[in-house]
Amino acid sequence: MYEVEIEVLTGELKSLAGWGAHPKRLIARPVLRSLFDVEALDSVTAGYVMRSRLIEGIDAWTGRAILFEHQYPAERFNRATKLLLGLERPKDSAAARRRRVMALLAWYGSLETWRRPHGPERELMRMLSVHLLAHRS
User: Fold this and answer.
1) For position 67, what pLDDT does the model report?
2) For the residues of the chain, what is the DSSP string, one character each?
3) Using CA atoms in the order 63, 67, 71, 72, what is the torsion angle rounded to 10 degrees?
4) Most exposed of 65, 74, 109, 114 (fewest Cβ within 10 Å)?
5) What are the tens digits of pLDDT across the range 11-46?
């Protein structure tokens, strides 16, 4: 069951990479809603609580992240995930955010390769999913 939850949450986070983690989009993600335990809240409040808890979850990453056979300090992983989800620079387009993340992580492939269903973007979101599920409140 845990593997299924990881993959479903990864899919939810990956979809937010394109649209941005705006509170109105967060509330439509059932695994995130359950993870952040906001079922009893009205949708507006739930969305903002989910956004805050997502940021807290990202900020809780410590140590080093290993991605694409490279090690990244926690600060870089945190910034990359926030950029990708539109939690940082929310007015940027998805393509602009993705390019910034690719540069930040020194990943030199095409944007199309980055955002493929089973590409590097998904791997980054999977790492975040594992972290969030392991540290659920």
Assistant:
1) 81
2) -HHHHHHHHHHHHHHHHHH---HHHHTT-HHHHHHTT-TTS-HHHHHHHHHHHHHHHHHT--SEEEETTEEEEHHHHHHHHHHHTTSSSTTS-HHHHHHHHHHHTT--S-HHHHTSTTSHHHHHHHHHHHHHHHT--
3) -60
4) 109
5) 999 999 989 999 999 999 999 999 999 989 999 999
